[in-house]
Amino acid sequence: MNVLVDTSVWSIALRRRKQKLSSSLGDYLIIEELKELIKEMRVVIIGLIRQEILSGISDRSHFIKLRNCLRSFQNLPIDSNDYERAAEFYNLCRRKGIQRSHIDFLICSIAETHNLSIFTTDNDFINYAKLFHISIYKPRNNQYVNK
């Protein structure tokens, strides 16, 4: 099964070297798992996540380098059905008193439609999995993620 990697995971993996040296064991295991998924060619990305990853990078040369690296990953196309399903998820959560990000609901919709697991450190997705037919990626030998 392919894996839709959320911005939270990319952020951990793409931190600057100084921050990587001080990262926790959990962060290290997340980075190693992402490397394995990339080697296995199982990583999927969507344009919104690509945009989130690239946003806020003020150094132009760093931006270009990262942009070029991310171009290795083809965007999964998003169509009207994905947006409509995301709106259904939003409405369901709103009826239950849950207010969250439209992007999160779009990620859930795409994961459901394309039968993808979501690799994330954002615990909101664990709660979404109780409401929607989505799968949260469980890293191999990694008890530190999503705790």
Q: What is the C-alpha radius of gyration, as a whole number of Å?
A: 15 Å
Regions with little confidence, pLDDT below 50 for 5+ residues: none
CATH fold field value of the domain at 3-77 and 116-136 = Rossmann fold
- What is the CA-CA span between the terminal residues? 23 Å
What class would the helix/strand composition place it in?
alpha/beta
Which oligomeric state applies?
single chain
CATH class of the domain at 3-77 and 116-136: Alpha Beta
Please name the CATH architecture of the domain at 3-77 and 116-136.
3-Layer(aba) Sandwich
How would you state the average pLDDT, rounded? 89
Q: Compute the number of strand runs.
A: 4
What amount of the residues lies in strands? 5-15%
CATH homologous superfamily of the domain at 3-77 and 116-136, by name?
A: 5'-nuclease
Give the H and E element order.
Answer: EHHHEHHHHEHE
The rough form would be described as globular
Largest sheet: 4 strands, parallel
List keywords for this structure.
147 residues, alpha/beta, Rossmann fold, four-stranded parallel β-sheet, 8 helices, globular
Describe the structure.
- This protein has 147 residues and is α/β, with parallel strands linked by helices.
- It has a domain at 3-77 and 116-136: Rossmann fold, CATH 3.40.50.
- It is built from 8 helices and 4 strands, in the order E-H-H-H-E-H-H-H-H-E-H-E.
- The chain has a 4-stranded parallel sheet with strand order 2-1-3-4.
- Strand 3 (117-119), helix 8 (124-131) and strand 4 (135-136) form a beta-alpha-beta unit.
- Helix 6 crosses helix 7.
- The chain is globular.
